[in-house]
Amino acid sequence: MLVPKVDELKNIIIEYATHVETMIDKSLRGLVEKNTALLGEVINEDEAKTNDYDSRVDKLCTEIIAQFEPLAGDLRAMLMFLKMNKDLERMGDHAVNIAESAAILVSQPAMDSFVKISQMAAESVRMFKDSFRAFVTENIQLANEVCERDSIVDDLGDKLLKEAIAIMKKDPKTIQQALHLIRISHNLERIADLSTNICEEVIYIVEGKDIKHHHDI
């Protein structure tokens, strides 16, 4: 039967999301706590698990489509699960990027722009968690709210970029630090964007309504 297979697929995606959330958390905690062991786990171990999850979801989606030939809503769900799978894979990549830059920054004094990074991290992680809460509960209202909050992260990213440029101009010795902070900021923005994508996919799965062109992603 199709339903048990779909439930199995949904459970794997939830496990995958939990793993990616842990990666993001470890990357950010590693930066704040200057914990190189946590950063090393993300870079050297956790990325391989994301590849395993990606393969499992792809394989199961392919089996379901081949075996049951789903139509209408069921087929739409399969296609959205495949897209969500790729969103999670990319989020895992962004977590690794953050960890790589954090590994360089932990040995150096914190910059003023670090406050903006903390604010961006808090909002990006909240968007990620809410996007999957919307997915699990099929909460359309929450999914729409997450989409609307994407501009908060973008605004913080713009402010951090301006601050970092000003700091680099004032003191060229800060260029390496500033560039890595900008890289972390960019990856947090992409995590927020991908969380928005997931919410758009939830809305499409539940309502069959495509809202992608209503948001600047």
- As for the number of domains, it is 1
Low-confidence stretches: none
The major beta sheet can be summarized as: none
| SS content category | mainly alpha
Q: From the alpha carbons, calculate the radius of gyration and give it in angstroms.
A: 19 Å
Spatial separation of the terminal alpha carbons: 37 Å
Kindly identify the CATH topology: Methane Monooxygenase Hydroxylase, Chain G, domain 1
CATH architecture: Up-down Bundle
Mean pLDDT: 90
Q: Kindly provide the name of the CATH class.
A: Mainly Alpha
Shape designation: elongated
Give the H and E element order.
HHHHHH
The share of residues in helices is over 70%
Task: Kindly estimate the percentage of residues that lie in beta strands according to DSSP.
Answer: under 5%
CATH superfamily: Phosphate transport system protein phou homolog 2, domain 2
Total of DSSP H or I helical runs spanning 4+ residues: 6
Q: How many strand segments? A: 0
Structure characterization notes:
With about 220 residues, this protein is an all-alpha fold. It has one domain: Up-down Bundle (Methane Monooxygenase Hydroxylase, Chain G, domain 1), CATH 1.20.58.220. The protein is built from 6 helices and no strands. It has helices spanning about 1-35, 35-70, 70-105, 115-135, 140-170, 175-205. Helix 1 runs antiparallel to helix 4 (about 115-135), helix 2 (about 35-70) packs antiparallel against helix 3 and helix 4 (about 115-135) runs parallel beside helix 6 (about 175-205).
